[in-house]
Design a protein that fits this description.
binds magnesium ion; binds adenosine-5'-diphosphate; elongated; alpha/beta; Rossmann fold; 12 strands; 196 residues; two-stranded antiparallel ribbon
């Protein structure tokens, strides 16, 4: 009976993960949630990997030009160090973080904080990306968002690389990637293989 008693002093933390392909609106959705937390006067801290230098070194930026101030960090462990008293912790481009990120997010959630992490679930080869699979498994809430397929207009699930650059981590933009649905992605892959 006592064990079920209401404990108003106990903050309930949670891990929310937003995933999807490039251009699917992950950063937009992350910014939307963080802005609402800010409106509710919660203390918000936002992090991104230092490697993501698109547009702005100290902001997370969506393809829609929505922006929010953030801190660029070299490792997941730095998030713990820099989170301070924030009750809401946002992480963008989670796929580029080291394997320590799931543990860091779990620790922050266990401390009673709301953690919201956004990242690519799949790389351009269609393989689960970095720490994302573990993060998704540990999440309390998962939101998968979709881009629009640039070939047929269906819901896109894949990021397709339209340049020949080889490294997996190619931080790129519209000139390097397009969003494709499963069928158009598979078709494009077959055609590319046929050409080589
Ligand atoms: P993500 O963080 O998932 O890459 P963003 O939040 O940065 O996505 O960008 C989403 C925005 O990208 C959309 O609101 C739209 O303006 C733009 N956009 C460009 N190409 C596409 C596409 N193929 N499908 C959907 N949105 C697109
Ligand atoms: Mg983004």
């Amino acid at each position: 009976m006592d064990g079920m008693a209401h404990r108003p002093d106990r903050r309930k933390g949670a891990l929310e993960v937003i995933c999807g392909s490039m251009f699917s609106g992950k950063t937009e959705e992350l910014i939307r949630r963080l802005r609402r937390a800010d409106i509710a006067r919660q203390q918000v801290a936002v992090f991104k990997p230092v490697l993501d230098k698109r547009y702005d070194e100290s902001s997370i930026v969506s393809h829609d030009d929505s922006k929010l101030g953030s801190t660029a960090v070299k490792s997941a462990a730095e998030i713990i160090r820099l989170a301070g008293e924030a009750t809401v912790v946002g992480v963008d481009e989670a796929q580029f973080f080291d394997d320590g990120l799931p543990q860091v997010c779990t620790q922050l959630a266990n401390e009673g904080r709301r953690v919201i992490a956004a990242g690519l679930d799949l790389d351009y080869l269609g393989k689960p990306f970095g720490p994302m699979p573990v993060l998704l498994a540990l999440a309390d809430f998962v939101t998968k968002v979709h881009a629009v397929c640039m070939h047929c207009g269906d819901l896109a699930h894949h990021s397709y690389r339209i340049t020949d650059d080889k490294p997996l981590v190619l931080v790129g933009e519209k000139e390097s990637y397009i969003a494709l649905c499963r069928a158009c992605y598979n078709q494009a892959g077959t055609q590319a293989a046929g050409h080589s």
